[in-house]
Amino acid sequence: MEVINALGRRKSAVARVYLSTGKGNITINDRPIEEYFKEETLRYIVKQPLNTTETIANFDIKANIFGGGTKGQAEAVRLAIARALCKVDAEAYRPVLKSNGFLTRDAREVERKKPGQPGARRRFQFSKR
């Protein structure tokens, strides 16, 4: 099987994933997943599409991530892996991934700060006198 690539985005994080047949090694920015994502919950998020399709031991994954924080990066990798699995075998994997919501791009972004206010929605305290 040739290398299949896919793109995933979440907040301001962008992940490029290269999926090939292998033994289940996951490398992120040339580092193993255990070294890149220290928290177990983030590693779980990254592996969710592989666990639901029961293909964790069938593919090697190499990912390049930039931008965003750790949670956004993990969710961007999850989307990219799900998209790559659909390219491998759409009939087998797509219904399972879609029903679990792994193929949906979460479009929520941080709202910009408005001028004359302390935040995006927050106003300075109103003083009558």
Please identify, by name, the CATH architecture: 2-Layer Sandwich
Q: What structural class do you assign from the helix and strand content? A: alpha+beta
Order of helices and strands: EEEEHHEHH
Show unreliable segments.
none
Query: What's the number of extended β-strand segments?
Result: 5
Gyration radius from CA atoms, angstroms: 18 Å
Hey, roughly how much beta strand do the residues contain? 15-25%
Q: Would you summarize the structure shown here?
A:
The chain has 129 residues and is α+β, with helices and mostly antiparallel strands. The chain has helices at residues 33-36, 40-53, 70-88, 90-99, and strands spanning 4-10, 13-21, 26-28, 31-32, 59-66.
Please give a handful of descriptors for the protein shown.
129 residues, Ribosomal Protein S5, domain 2, five-stranded mixed beta sheet, alpha+beta
Characterization of this structure:
The protein has 129 residues and is of the alpha+beta class. It has one domain: Ribosomal Protein S5, domain 2 (2-Layer Sandwich). The protein is built from four helices and five strands; from the N terminus they run ββββααβαα. A hairpin with a 2-residue loop joins strand 1 (4-10) and strand 2 (13-21). Helix 2 runs parallel beside helix 3 and helix 3 (70-88) packs antiparallel against helix 4 (90-99). The radius of gyration is 18 Å and the shape is elongated. The protein starts with a strand and ends in a 30-residue tail after the last helix. The model has no long low-confidence stretch (mean pLDDT 94).
